[in-house]
Amino acid sequence: MTVRVLVADDQALVRAGLCGIVATTGDQSVVGQAATGAQAMEVAGLTQPDVVLMDVRMLEMDGLEATWRITASGLARVVMLTIFDLGEYVYVTLRGGAGGFLLKDAPPQDLLTAIRVVAAGEALPPRHPAADLRLRRLRDRARTAGTDPDRPGSVQRRDRPPPAHRPGNGQNPRVC
């Protein structure tokens, strides 16, 4: 079975590179590209990908909001990509429905593995100490409240990711 991939990044050169990496496999193919979160939602609706490779920061609608909308509607699973090594992004993307989070400096093989894992319905474990700590605390609080966050449906999902998903002053500069 071929995994259908949508690549969403505001930088054309990065999109081309990601498409090239996916093209090196025999079990994955790129079915579409998008330069904004809004385009990613539109193209996902048209192409029905299995996995969306989504940049965190994009104009018009950032990748975090687009991820929440895509996963909430059941259009596709999402692997978030960014150059920013911030635990806050890891936490927010996973709480927002993403199946995985990778830094853009990850080896190509890690990207291909992430696509396969997320397409299979599994989640990539976070590889950031700050996100690991926040997820552990969330699990502890949920268990104290009598719910099991690791069992689907036992914890109500938020309507959207927390609003404080941008580090710094809340500006969203045109940086990937």
From TrEMBL:
<keyword id="KW-0597">Phosphoprotein</keyword>
<keyword id="KW-0805">Transcription regulation</keyword>
<dbReference type="InterPro" id="IPR001789">
    <property type="entry name" value="Sig_transdc_resp-reg_receiver"/>
</dbReference>
<keyword id="KW-0804">Transcription</keyword>
<dbReference type="GO" id="GO:0000160">
    <property type="term" value="P:phosphorelay signal transduction system"/>
</dbReference>
<dbReference type="InterPro" id="IPR039420">
    <property type="entry name" value="WalR-like"/>
</dbReference>
<dbReference type="InterPro" id="IPR011006">
    <property type="entry name" value="CheY-like_superfamily"/>
</dbReference>
<feature type="compositionally biased region" description="Basic and acidic residues">
    <location>
        <begin position="148"/>
        <end position="162"/>
    </location>
</feature>
<dbReference type="GO" id="GO:0003677">
    <property type="term" value="F:DNA binding"/>
</dbReference>
<feature type="region of interest" description="Disordered">
    <location>
        <begin position="142"/>
        <end position="176"/>
    </location>
</feature>
<feature type="modified residue" description="4-aspartylphosphate">
    <location>
        <position position="55"/>
    </location>
</feature>
<dbReference type="InterPro" id="IPR058245">
    <property type="entry name" value="NreC/VraR/RcsB-like_REC"/>
</dbReference>
<feature type="domain" description="Response regulatory">
    <location>
        <begin position="4"/>
        <end position="119"/>
    </location>
</feature>
<dbReference type="Pfam" id="PF00072">
    <property type="entry name" value="Response_reg"/>
</dbReference>
<protein>
    <recommendedName>
        <fullName>Response regulatory domain-containing protein</fullName>
    </recommendedName>
</protein>
<keyword id="KW-0238">DNA-binding</keyword>
